[in-house]
Amino acid sequence: MTEQPPMHSEDDLLPLSALQHLLFCPRRAALVHIEGVWDESRATAEGSILHERVHSSGSESRGDVRIARSLRLHSLRLGLVGQADVVEFHRLPDAGPAQEASGSLPAGVALTGVKGLWKPFPIEYKVGRLRHERAYEVQLCAQALCLEEMLNVQVPQGALYYGKTARRLQIAFDERLRKDTEEAARRLHDLIGSGKTPTARYEKKCGECSLLNVCMPKVTGVRHNVGSYVQKELRSTEEDGP
C-alpha cells in the first residue's frame, strides 16, 4: 500500500494563487509571499477589476446549471486555501450512474434545496487573450483538487475564461496535470518554509513581470553580479597589458 503524505494543519495553508507565481518564477513567489512585496501594473490592475466584477455578481441558476461565485476552497492534503472565481454545478441525468468508471469518487454531489446530483466545474477568470498557460492550468487544477477533497466528488474538467476575447478554454484534469499540481504545491511549501528568496536571474519573461522594478534582475541577478563584473574587468586588463 502506498504511504499517503501527512495532512497539513489549517495554520500551514498557503494561498492557492501562489502556485501561479511559483510557476512563473520562484523568486516572484518569494518576493510576494515571504517578503510581502507587491507592485501594481496595468495588467494586474485589470485583473483585479475583472475578478471584483465576477465576485460581486452573486450566485444564480440557469436551468440545469447552478453558478456559485467567490466560493472558498481549501485542501489539507495539498496545504492550500483560496477562492474560486466561479464554480458551475451541472445537473447529472437522473438515470446516470452514481459513480464513473474513471475513479472511485461519486460523479455528482447533492446540493441543499434541489433534487438530483450535480457535477462541479470550476472556472478561473484571466485577463488577456485565449492561450495555453501551464501556470494557469495548475492553479485551476488545484481548485478542482480542493473541490474533490471538500465535496467528495469527481471534478474531471474546468475552464479558463479570458476576458479580452470573452472565450473559455476547457481544461481536462488528467493524471499529468494532477501530478504537476501536487508537485507545485509541495515546492511552494518548501520555498515558503525555507524563508529564503531565490537569487534573481534575468530571463526574457522578466519584462512581463509587475515586480520587474522591485526585483531588478539585470542589476542583482547572478548573471550580472558584482563579482562577475570585477572578474571580467580584471581579465580584460590582463589581456590589454600595461
Explained architecture:
This protein is α/β, with parallel strands linked by helices and 242 residues long. The chain folds into two domains: 10-198, Lambda Exonuclease, Chain A; 199-242, no CATH class. The protein is built from eight helices and seven strands, in the order E-H-H-H-E-E-E-E-H-E-E-H-H-H-H. Strands 1, 2, 3, 4, 5, 6 and 7 form a seven-stranded mixed sheet that branches.
Q: Helix and strand layout, with pairings?
A:
Blueprint: E1 14-15, H1 18-24, H2 26-33, H3 42-55, E2 60-62, E3 65-75, E4 80-91, E5 118-126, H4 134-151, E6 157-162, E7 167-172, H5 175-194, H6 212-215, H7 217-220, H8 226-240
Parallel strand pairs: 1-4, 5-6
Antiparallel strand pairs: 2-3, 3-4, 4-5, 6-7
Helix pairs in contact: 1-2, 1-4, 1-5, 4-5
Amino-to-carboxy terminus distance: 72 Å
- Sequence stretches where pLDDT stays below 50 over 5 or more residues: 41-47, 96-102
Note the overall shape.
globular
Mean pLDDT: 83
Number of helices: 8
Strand element count: 7
Query: What's the helical proportion of residues?
Result: 25-40%
**What does the main sheet amount to?**
7 strands, mixed
Number of domains: 2
CATH topology descriptor of the largest domain: Lambda Exonuclease, Chain A
CATH C-level class of the largest domain: Alpha Beta
